[in-house]
Amino acid sequence: MEKWIVYALISMFFAGLTSVVAKFGMKDMSSDSALVVRTAVVFAFVTVNAFLFKNAFTEIRKAAPRDLWLLAFSGLCTTVSWVFYYRAMKEGPVSYVASIDKASIVVTLVLSFLILREPVTTKVLIGAALIFAGMLVLVWK
Fold first, then answer.
1. Residues in CB range of 81: below 8 A, 6 or more apart
2. What is the biggest distance separating any 2 CA atoms in the chain, rounded to whole angstroms?
3. Other CB atoms closer than 10 Å to residue 95's CB: what's the count?
4. At what angle do helices 65-91 and 3-25 cross, to 10 degrees?
5. Phi and psi dihedrals of 29, rounded to 5?
6. How confident is the model over 46-72, as pLDDT tens digits?
7. 16-24 own/partner pairs: CB under 8 Å, 24+ apart
8. CA of 122: how far to CAs of 31, 118, 132, in Å?
């Protein structure tokens, strides 16, 4: 199995775990307060990882301004996503919220085809259609 697939599977497992644990953790606090705690932990661990195991200072100093702006915009997108994800999770069932949120894969796929010029394959289109159909089943009243 290729290394990137192993990384993606590890990511999948912990991404699935995080929503359930967070739902328990925000029982007696607002979604915004819960997100502050989570984000502080994420920031600390990501920073330690980057600076202990990689040459992050050098890479960041050498990065093109365009790349830094794009990464900053990605961070802004993540922030907006997390704020609304936590608000939805606070008020609704995590199984539905997480499933709807994961339909963002369809947005990612469309943008990867249009912007990154990644190949459009039958397998990817069928997978995206199934994900989208699953989301429709959950939101249909």
1. 101, 104
2. 53
3. 12
4. 40
5. -145, 165
6. 988 888 877 777 888 889 999 999 999
7. 16/98, 19/89, 19/94, 19/97, 19/98, 20/94, 22/86, 22/89, 23/89, 23/94
8. 39, 13, 15
